[in-house]
Amino acid sequence: MEAEQNDYREEDEVLDESSEAISEEGSVTPVAASEETESTSDAPVEEARDKRAWYVIHCYSGYENKVRHNLEQRIETMGMRNQIFDVVIPTQEEIEVRDGKRRVVERHVFPGYVLVNMIYSNESWFVVRNTPGVTGFVGMGTEPAPLRPEEVSSILRRMEAEAPHVKASFKVGERVRIIDGPFNDFRGTVSEIDSDRTKVRVMVNFFGRETPVELDFLQVEKA
Question: What is the rounded CA–CA span in Å between residue 144 and residue 108?
Fold first, then answer.
């Protein structure tokens, strides 16, 4: 009898250990499922982010601001903020020297082009393509080609340049008149332009000889 009772006790112990093992395994399963659920719940968001890209649209030169305004209005009225995120006209500040005066002007880096950050789909393509002033997307074939990341970085660097680019109103080979300094009212020909230093070298006829004179942009004007 004692042997039989010992056998029963051993069987009970085996059953208890098996139930504990099953319980432990069962407790792991729901955790794994919840983790999988959490990871898959973020998938659509990550997938949408991956699909965002910068595209280039073409318009008539001089109508870039109008096209941006028209497109932004269509995005709002047609509820496309979840697919079309930003409309940018690449610009850069320039210091223009004209008639001895400097003025800061905003120049379009790529006249006739506008950048659009969006998720490409039939709906977003329709909204952008049918915006008044837009003549088409830039790309080969029937679908537009997104800009490469390095191309976007290059454009943004140009837009965020700290020092404005200085642009003179005259060119090499043009006749100019000196309006300031010891050679005031002399006329000569531009031989070299140094935009970084805002200096210009002018060949002046001085006592029958062509003499190079270095001047500031503000000291000369077109003859």
Answer: 22
State the DSSP code for 218. Answer: G
Which domains are present in the chain?
49-166 (3.30.70.940), 170-222 (2.30.30.30)
Write the DSSP string, 61-87.
TT-HHHHHHHHHHHHHHTT-TTTEEEE
Residue 141: the pLDDT is 66
**Which residue type is seen at 207?**
F
Query: What would the two tokens of residue 26 be?
Result: 């069962």
Are the beta carbons of 115 and 90 closer than 8 angstroms? yes
Mean pLDDT for back-to-back runs of 10 residues, the chain (223 residues): 47 46 40 41 51 92 94 96 94 75 80 94 93 87 84 81 70 91 90 87 89 89 82
Q: Which residue matches tokens 């659009």?
A: 116
pLDDT single digits (tens) 124-151: 999 999 999 999 888 766 778 899 989 8
Structure tokens at 23: 């319980």
Among left, alpha and beta (phi > 0; psi -120 to 50; other), residue 188 is: beta
Return the closest-CA partner of residue 113 out of 53, 155, 57, 55.
57
**Longest CA span, the chain:** 138
Q: Is 165 exposed, middle or buried (0-12, 13-18, 19+ CB in 10 A)?
A: middle
In 22-100, the DSSP E strands lie at 52-59, 84-88, 91-98
- Three-state DSSP at 78 gives coil
